[in-house]
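By convention, the token line describes the chain's fold. To illustrate:
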Amino acid sequence: MRSDTGELVRSARAGDAAAFEQLVRRHLRAAYSVAFAVTNDPNDAEDVTQDAFITALERLEECHDPDRFSGWLLRIV
């Protein structure tokens, strides 16, 4: 199992769906926590989290520092 976030981002950019899935698993809780803190509603937080990961996937090339994926993702949330 890959543990380096930057490498996962680079692999996901190259089309590796499993790498992006690993990024989702690794950052899901933090993304949901931020979304819930903003929305204060579990359903809205789930929607925001899902939308944020979709946006992240679509814009992965815009993550200029793959080792800082988490901060980049949380700004999207």
About this structure: The chain has four helices and no strands.
